[in-house]
Amino acid sequence: MITLGIESSCDETAIGIVSEGKHLIVNNILSSMNLHALYGGVVPEIAARSHIEAIILLIESSLSDAKLTWNEIDSINVTNGAGLSGSLLIGVMTAKTLALTLQKPLYSINHVMSHVFANFLTSTSLSGYKMPSKPPRFPFLAIIVSGGHSQLVIFRDYLDYEVLGKTLDDAIGEAFDKVAKMLGLKYPGGVEVSKLALKGNKNAFSFPVAKVNGYDFSFSGLKTAVLRQAQKIIGEDYQFPSIKLSERLSESQKADLAASFEYWAIETIIRKVKLAILEYNPKNIVVAGGVAANFELRSRLSSLASNIEFPDPKLCTDNGAMVATLGYYLASNSAPSANPLTLNINPNLKM
Ligand code: KG4
Ligand code: ZN
Questions:
Q1: I need a labelling partner for 223 at 20 to 30 A (CA). Which of 4, 28, 87, 145 fits?
Q2: How confident is residue 34, by pLDDT bands cut at 50, 70 and 90?
Q3: Which of 179, 182, 317, 318 to mutate to test the pocket of ligand 1 (most atoms within 8 A of CB)?
């Protein structure tokens, strides 16, 4: 079974083609990130317009890269939430039209859940990919860390899962992005903070880990603690505007703030993961979402548990391959397909 995935929930137009839910054939991504960098964050109207310009061409070039025709595609899978309304609409309208005209089954895909399914991809003939050696075994613990979500989920089977906890305020990726702005780093900030952190001292500042019950997280206090520390370093009080901080901080002060922030943000996740391992004894642990590309998170999780493998970073940030993969498991587990006449977007879709 060959599945095609369409992802357009935010600023990436992405098409993936996957065989049997495990072999990656194509993972094409066009990002409008450069257009948003000027504004320091994603501008929804610009993102939607970019999807319109890119999506048909990207689908055509993906089929051609895969050396496949529509006859060989068994299902069309599309992210219908969560995400930006205008962005989601472009992917969903495209997928509905294709499903209707080509008479293919259509599956609606939950964006956050699809991030987890990137972990089922274990082989590819594409160059430059490092894939896990085997798919995760059930029950597994999924650590979902992205720009919009931070949650811990136990998967007992492909479609049988329980959300153990989630962030009560900011997502961890959002906290990375906000700290990046404070430090004057370019958008998108997460990867820039982690690069700068390599030059800093993670013990320079001891930031608090919010005390939250159960498996929930909180990152907004940590973000404010970084702001207060930066204001203190330059001898200003809490009224000093965060956008002016970076001009007054030295490179080494910025690097120390980045490294300490990164350490404590990841510590927040690690503490809850330790609890979940004790309580649920998962056979495997997987990481999903943009922050799963973070080197420090990967290295600390690897020293915590041996039963963990990581998807290639190109399969951690938004992509169509994860959408195609989840589509395969929906079909093979008899989940109902979507009606191409009535499928709608759901910008607030939860797992
Ligand atoms: O999953 P994703 O591509 O989009 C959402 O669904 O949110 O995640 C994007 C998030 C952004 O907040 C970005 O700053 C963060 O992932 N990110 C990172 C790294 N790479 C991307 N955060 C920390 N370290 C990284 N290396
Ligand atoms: Zn995402």
A1: 87
A2: confident
A3: 317
Q: What is the pLDDT of residues 159-193, one digit of tens each?
A: 999 999 999 999 999 999 999 999 999 888 999 99
* Domain boundaries defined on the chain: 2-132+312-332, 162-309
- Name the pLDDT band for 23 (thresholds 50, 70, 90): very high
Helix (H) or strand (E) holding 1: none
CA of 2 to the centre of ligand 1 (A): 28
- Which residue has the CA at smallest separation from atom 21 of ligand 1? 290
The correct answer on CATH 3.30.565.10 for the domain covering 162-309 is no
Whether residue 194 has its Cβ less than 6 Å from ligand 1 = yes
Locate all alpha helices (DSSP H) within the chain, ordered by sequence.
Answer: 33-37, 44-66, 85-102, 111-117, 172-182, 189-197, 220-233, 245-248, 251-280, 295-304, 321-332
pLDDT at 154 over 90: yes
Q: Is the Cβ atom of 167 under 6 angstroms away from ligand 1?
A: no
Residues in the chain: 351
Q: Which two tokens stand for residue 241?
A: 């505007």
Do domains 2-132+312-332 and 162-309 share one topology? The answer is: yes
0.70 cut: is pTM over it?
yes
Atom of ligand 1 nearest to the CA of 297: 24
Architecture of the domain defined by 2-132+312-332: 2-Layer Sandwich (3.30)
Report the DSSP pairing between strands 23-31 and 123-124: parallel
| Ligand 1 contact via 187 beta carbon (within 6 Å) | no
Ligand 1 pocket, 75 CB below 6 A?
A: no
